[in-house]
Amino acid sequence: MAIDLNSDVGESFGNWTFGDDARIIESVSSANVACGFHAGDATGIRATCAAAAAAGVSVGAHPGYRDLAGFGRRFIDVEPAELTNDVVYQIGALQALARAAGTTVRYVKPHGALYNTIAVHELQARAVVQAVREIDDALPLLVLPNTVIEAEARSAGLRTVVEAFADRAYQPDGALVSRREAGSVLHSESDVVDHVLRIATDGEVLAIDGSRIGINAESICVHGDTPGAVAMAAAVRKALTAAGVDIDAFA
């Protein structure tokens, strides 16, 4: 068995340090690098790409809404053509910085509210798909399973990669529990490890009501901004390896 581990990185901005990218990169196989709209600046983004390249970790674009103040976690009712242009802009910027750092952008994973919105919002999902197709239709797109974005991307001929989350709770319908609700983020290292092993070896997650949800994930996200993220990511990698699961980038 093999699975990809990904994490959101490159989100520091100017004097504000966010997460420990260098240590997170030690545990993952794919790095979702912020593109400057929800977080990140050119110097930090380039340094993160260089660190990923040195570690042999795949770099992916992590575009979001133009929302630095809200960290990209607020829905924006943006016109689809504008959203397409915003995503093209962000991927293009990361491609240039990645190339300067000695690597390339190998996939796309939308961030935060945009990621959750395109799971259900047809027009914004199509706008994101259009952006990826215009940049490079060979770029895989990380998605939640059984969502609008998965269907739109596949219909357009894009490769979709089903993602699960190491540190997030799930609703019985397979959606993520909103961060505004208690219990939406798993903080116990042992709970996270159990959750990940269940995904990787049993192909399922336990929803907040105790029901079981089947999920055939190719990649698991360990958020770099969760308290204790570095130790959590290392524990997840160690547990997967001990269970006979190889950690390998999908792109």
3D architecture notes:
With 251 residues, the protein is α/β, with parallel strands linked by helices. It has eight helices and ten strands. It has helices at 21-25, 42-55, 80-100, 112-117, 122-136, 148-155, 189-202, 229-242; strands at 2-9, 30-34, 58-62, 105-108, 141-143, 160-165, 204-206, 212-214, 219-221, 246-247. It is globular, with a radius of gyration of 17 Å. It starts with a strand and ends with a strand.
Strand-helix topology:
Elements lengths: L1 E8 L11 H5 L4 E5 L7 H14 L2 E5 L17 H21 L4 E4 L3 H6 L4 H15 L4 E3 L4 H8 L4 E6 L23 H14 L1 E3 L5 E3 L4 E3 L7 H14 L3 E2 L4
Parallel strand pairs: 1-2, 1-9, 1-10, 2-3, 3-4, 5-6, 6-9
Antiparallel strand pairs: 7-8
Termini separation (Å)?
A: 16 Å
The sequence of SSEs as H and E is EHEHEHEHHEHEHEEEHE
Q: Overall pLDDT, averaged?
A: 95
Strand content: 15-25%
Largest sheet: 8 strands, parallel
According to DSSP, the number of beta strands is 10
Query: Segments where pLDDT lies below 50 for 5+ residues?
Result: none
Question: Any idea what the shape is?
Answer: globular
Class from secondary-structure proportions: alpha/beta
